[in-house]
Amino acid sequence: MGSRDLVRLLVLWRLAGEWWRAEALYLYFCGGLSPAEIERKMGIRRTVVAGIVRRAYEVYGKNYGVDRVVSRCFAHVSRLETAFSSYCKLCGKSGFAKPMRHLALSHRKYVEQCVDVVVSSLRRVREDSVL
Length: 131
Ligand SMILES: [Zn+2]
Hints:
single chain; mainly alpha; binds zinc ion
């Protein structure tokens, strides 16, 4: 739990080609939209949006500060290249039902490198970072 874990979740969404989850999270925490408004805007069911928000709280482990981490790392994570289309660009294998799981299990080192890149770019922005 903590900032780094929340950054890792966003990185995994990015790499796995599920960036829409992070976009929904961003609209919720930084755009001030309700799950119902996000449903209208993005076409994602509000129960799914609520699940995404719940997951962010779980991973972060606190009820405050999630919005700050999301707003500060969103742009950095969005610059990472997606590692999945119909196959994994890192190892060339395909047929994964859960790309995130594959990335977390088989490419842990790469995922951590990406997390490091995001965390260090945040530190460069402000030394007294929450991270
Ligand atoms: Zn792979």
